[in-house]
Amino acid sequence: MRNLYLRSRVAQWAVAVALLLVGAVSIRAALPLVRGPFSLLLIPFFFSFAQISVAPLFRLVGLYRYHSAMLKVTIRTTRVYEIHGGTPFDYVLHLRWRDRGAPAARRILVSYLEGLLDIADCVARGELPGSIRITGTSYFFREASARRLGFALEPPSLRLRANLFLHLFDLTLLYSFARGRWALPPVWRTHNAVISGSGLLERRSSIDAMIRLLGGHSTGADESRAALCA
Asked: Which of 49, 92, 193, 211 has the fewest CB neighbours in a 10 Å radius?
């Protein structure tokens, strides 16, 4: 099913519509349970379920733009390129239960780096301006690793804090999967990680070296990935 979904456009649309319908019906059925002040604690759960339901559709219609299996861009303007990790659906699609723990963490990290490498290649081809501000959250990377990649760390904005709260349920699930045990993601140490397009391009060789060190594949020679920037 995974290979069929990745190959067939018809299968992608079928999965997207089916998940959207299941999500809409399930959330509608659960709404009567939302009562009283403690119902606010259910918001992250609803957002997590909604994200699983809409992720395939958002990818198909272009609201999500993927630069690797686990790195997507949501906000895209001439000035800002906001990157995010994969959704729970991406974890289900690309990882297996037996991968939990160190194998999953390594594969996710490699995929993040491959995504950054692909964005750098988009800048090199002129498909993204060198002045563009590439921004994302830094909780997955250690601060030293983020700085090694050339990112500057800024205090988290109010929007970032709100976004982390709304997605706390799925962030906890995904972080726990990567750790191989139940663990709360260190959202309290999260910063805005920022780098310019030209700055990321300057770090291209370093990113490529990190991918090779982790046992991943360099994407520099894969011309087919150019379509991701289209």
From this structure: 92
